[in-house]
Sequence to fold (341 residues):
Amino acid sequence: PVIESVAGQPGENLNFVAAIEVYPEFAIGDLSALEIETISAEVTDADVAEMLETLREQNATWQVVGRSAKTGDRVTVNFAGTIDGEAFQGGTGEGMQVVLGEKRMLADFEAGLDGIAVGEAARVFDVAFPEEYPVENLKGKTAQFTVTATAIEEKVLPVMDDEFAGRFGSASLSELHADVRKNMERELKQALKRQVKDTVLTVVTDSLTFDVPKALTDEEAVAMRDNFVRQQMPNTDASALDASLFNEQATKRVKMGLVIMEIVKSADLKVNDALVDAFIQDVAAAYDEPEHVVATYKGDREMMSNARTVVLEQQAVDHVLANTKVSVKSLGFKAVMNPQA
Fold:
């Protein structure tokens, strides 16, 4: 409760007004009137091949070459930059490595390294800093850089064979193919569940009108703020970041949580223990010793409670899908795994 006013004198009764927020009352309504578009996808041979190629890239080595640099090479350089003849902070360095074509540097700087070779005279070229550059005193400025190369290396990809497979705990290349596909299918299944759940709850929530208790929104916003700081700014005091920045997302989460509660209540849903066991098995499958993970779940009351909550929420989603007009849109693996790409 929030104490809004207090009145009283010594020796007299204390009078005060307390405001207490209550959970909103609302009904889910006729689910058959709702239309929901879900998504589906599968892992193809091409997806597996691309993932294996990514693993090769991640395990590549670099080999020094005695030629000029080209796209894909890693160039090690020493550089010194000036603006209007004056050196600037961060404009000088030694031993910096740049992979040509990755576009991690300013376009003018990377272009200036094209064809550079060890032993050639220092290159001098201009680099324009864009107006949106994050360093205030460099925005919109043009710097002149003097650059020399100290090493040119080309990428060497490992051979795709049984030895390569062994790096990932697979006995053979064919087993690696199977393991990669299995992992991709598991990740895809989880991603589809998350996105379909969000779609379903968004459609149902948007069909309803009710006020969200401010206390719940504030509490969720603080939790989201703290989680964000813990993951993205680990050495920062969370309280220094205004939790209200998360209010919009927090309100959505709270509304969805209330909607799930009402679906469970109105449909009289009960946790399916078989589904809980299946959920735990799915989680455990991602680890080297799945039986140990299962035993850990079974022996931890809080973990079991969380598992039952997840399963009950999925049962609520399945209940909605069974009672609405559903269409399915087919997507590719990458479109599901990287929806913002």
